Amino acid sequence: MKKLLSVLSSALLAISTSIFLIACKSKDTSDQQVNKTNDTHKEIDHKDESKNNSDKDRDKNSKDNPTRSNKNSNGNDFGKDKPPKDQSDQKLNDDVVEAIPEENETDHELRDITLKDNSGKEIKGREITKLGFYKTKDGKFGLQQVQPDVIKVPSKLPSYFTILKGAFYRSESSYIQGIESWDTSRITDMNALFEDAENFNQDISKWDVSSVQDIEDMFKGAKSFNQNLSSWTFKDSVKHKDFAKSSGIVNNKEKWPKNLKKTIINV
């Protein structure tokens, strides 16, 4: 009996010891998990603090440097003061200005062509594809004299031209396609422009002659010219000697420019 009690006591002692060890181990594990959780929270708090500091630094830099490069919604870099590339290019295209040539003189560029007149008749001649010019000593630009067989020119006159003196002197053409559309508002000299152009008879009444200072010999010898120029008004100081001498309108002053009709001039 005593032996049995001794065995039972030993067994109970062993069980108690095992339970105690398990409880201690569980407590250690729980403590480790708590410590790990606390460490994790510390790490997260540290990251949040770093992020907040970074945001503060970035905000400070933006205030200190307002032109600093940013990203747009498409991820493209551009400064706050600088528009996107396509807008900038559009603005440049809108502000294009006609460049003044550096050369002192160039020749006309020509090619052979065939046109049809109002009746359907074919007319052979040459076309100026690029207008030639000369530069005077005082820096003014004039149109080079046009070859007699030219029947077509560019419809746009360069804006830096101010002289058309003798440009169509002795032209053989009755009609020169393109000149009817020229902006002549800056032209100051039309001296002898169509002198001895015996076949010329084209409507150029829409030309702006408000800046012209010299029309001497302008239609002198232009025997076929019979167009109405009554819509033109020149300056009172314009030089007009022999303006229409021997032309098709010499005796028809109703077709003359307004302020020349009552002027006594040598026609």
TrEMBL record:
InterPro entries: DUF285, Liste_lipo_26
Record Pfam families: DUF285 (PF03382)
This protein's UniProt keywords: Signal
Biased composition annotated in UniProt, kind: Basic and acidic residues: 38-66, 78-91
Position of the signal peptide: 1-23
Positions of the UniProt region annotated as Disordered: 28-91
Polar residues compositional bias, start-end: 67-76
NCBIfam families assigned to the protein according to its UniProt record, in alphabetical order: Liste_lipo_26
UniProt name for this protein: BspA family leucine-rich repeat surface protein
Organism: Mycoplasma feriruminatoris
